From TrEMBL:
Name listed for the protein in its UniProt record: FAD-binding PCMH-type domain-containing protein
Keyword annotations from UniProtKB, A to Z: FAD, Flavoprotein, Oxidoreductase
A GO molecular function held by the record: FAD binding
PROSITE patterns noted in UniProt: FAD_PCMH
Organism: marine sediment metagenome
Pfam families registered for this protein in UniProt: CO_deh_flav_C, FAD_binding_5
Domain FAD-binding PCMH-type, residue spans: 1-182
PANTHER family cross-referenced by the UniProt entry: XANTHINE DEHYDROGENASE SUBUNIT C-RELATED
Length: 209
């Protein structure tokens, strides 16, 4: 449709497939259907509390008109290096469910980006049906921020998100930091994560990272 596929014989519109427009919970995950819009995510109490960086990242995408119709699934499936929702979900350790004629499987989000605009999801044969992440619990949290050029309408200079888990003595016991557009795909800043892991949650450590 964007000049890459000269013939389109069939399209799937997920927006009215029953059940795919819902945010649900199982025992371990918050699960987001592929037709859920950014606006739904931004107003969902469980994600505000247990997946804050996803709310913050979906909340800066476009304007209200875009957020009211655009989906997190579309942001992820498009695999753009500056995909804000993708960067938020990546920090949370998100996974996506990909379905095709042979069945469906969950994949770690970081394994799905192949290059700018290229995803493991075969757009001719497969669909991203759901996205999920483990909610942050006690002594854990996440946040997202984006640095824009002064005019504010171009691509961001950088978007980043982080998820941290602390123990009772404020030692970091789990950390994920995601970045984009700083390479061909949204990615985890592993050297910075290594600096923080098992150390104190202190301004000095954060500056070092
Ligand atoms: C004015 C404007 C401002 C924007 N600002 C931002 C921004 O600030 N940050 C940002 O990250 N993005 C931005 N975007 C890009 C875009 O709106 C978002 O990435 C949005 O989340 C895409 O979701 P969508 O549902 O509209 O997907 P679409 O645009 O409909 O789809 C994108 C691609 O993903 C595929 N796809 C969609 N859903 C699925 C699925 N379930 N399974 C398999 N493939 C699928 C489509 O076939 C297509 O190739 C902006 C767009 C506009 C028009």
């Amino acid at each position: 449709l964007q000049g890459q596929s000269p013939v389109v014989e069939a399209m799937v519109d997920t927006s009215r497939v029953s059940g795919l427009d819902r945010i649900t919970n199982d025992n371990d995950h918050i699960i987001i259907g592929c037709a859920v819009t950014h606006t739904q995510i931004v107003h969902e109490k469980s994600i505000i509390r247990h997946g804050t960086c996803l709310v913050e990242s979906c909340g800066v995408i476009g304007g209200p008109q875009v957020r009211n119709v655009a989906t997190l699934a579309g942001n992820v499936a498009h695999a753009l290096p500056a995909g804000d929702g993708s960067i938020g979900l990546l920090a949370l350790g998100g996974e996506i469910e990909v379905a095709d004629a042979s069945g469906s499987r969950w994949m770690a989000l970081e394994d799905t980006f192949l290059g700018p605009g290229k995803s493991v999801i075969d757009h001719h044969r497969a669909m991203l049906t759901r996205l999920r992440f483990r909610p942050t619990e006690a002594r854990a949290g996440s946040a997202f921020t984006r640095v824009m050029r002064p005019q504010g309408v171009a691509l961001p200079m950088i978007s980043m998100a982080a998820r941290l888990q602390l123990d009772d003595s404020n030692t970091i016991t789990a950390v994920r930091i995601s970045l984009g557009p700083a390479g061909p795909v949204p990615y985890l800043a592993e050297p910075a994560m290594d600096v923080l892991m098992s150390g104190p949650a202190s301004p000095e450590q954060f500056n070092k990272a």
